[in-house]
TrEMBL record:
Source domain of life: Eukaryota
Organism, scientific name: Panicum virgatum
Role played: Component of the FACT complex, a general chromatin factor that acts to reorganize nucleosomes. The FACT complex is involved in multiple processes that require DNA as a template such as mRNA elongation, DNA replication and DNA repair. During transcription elongation the FACT complex acts as a histone chaperone that both destabilizes and restores nucleosomal structure.
Cellular compartments per GO CC: FACT complex
Protein name according to UniProt: FACT complex subunit
A GO BP annotation: DNA replication
Length: 185
């Protein structure tokens, strides 16, 4: 909760649209990265990367931090999407519709913030496993280490085949998941 409260104090973006505003996304990215750098040892547990995984669409109305972050970043929720934030890249694993909506952010984000957006498409019948491996390998390659701290929202239970696969990969991998040890959530 402290994460969202801290970010919320920095003028959140609200609304719902089928188009993602590059200006609003860049504004939120700058705030997110600034907060991450300022509070590197606090809320996220000193990570080299931060992963946010949003569940599939559901009629069950619950408050989920991952969906709140998605709404804050994009002005809409991106269901069944995995976002991995690195110091020089952001990886998105999403369905084709999500990738199409995010494609136009690549150039403005690169120019304004110096981050490369890497899109990975989840095939209709798949669970994104191969793309997840590519993302996790990119994290290790960027930090030239096989043991990277990966911040994530620990208390959200994985829902759906994509998030369940992601959960298994994170927890069965070489990554250190500090949220398991911190109570700041």
């Amino acid at each position: 909760m402290a994460i969202l409260e801290a970010l919320d104090r920095m003028t959140p973006v609200s609304g719902s649209s089928t188009v993602v505003s590059p200006e609003n996304f860049i504004k939120c990215l700058k705030k997110f990265y600034s907060h991450w750098k300022e509070d590197v040892y606090g809320l996220w547990g000193s990570p080299g990367a931060i992963a946010v995984a949003t569940p599939p669409y559901s009629d069950d109305i619950r408050y989920r931090k991952s969906l709140a972050l998605s709404m804050w970043f994009f002005g809409r929720d991106f269901a069944d999407t995995i976002m991995v934030f690195l110091s020089s890249q952001i990886h998105f694993l999403s369905g084709q519709d999500g990738c199409d909506l995010l494609e136009h952010l690549k150039m403005p984000v690169s120019k304004a913030v110096g981050l490369d957006i890497v899109l990975h498409n989840i095939e209709k019948a798949g669970n994104g496993s191969l793309s997840m491996d590519q993302i996790l390998n990119s994290v290790c390659a960027q930090y030239e280490s096989n043991c990277v701290v990966m911040g994530h929202i620990a208390r959200e239970k994985p829902e759906g085949k994509v998030l369940e696969e992601w959960y298994q990969k994170l927890h069965g991998s070489r990554f250190i998941l500090p949220a398991e040890h911190y109570s700041s959530y």
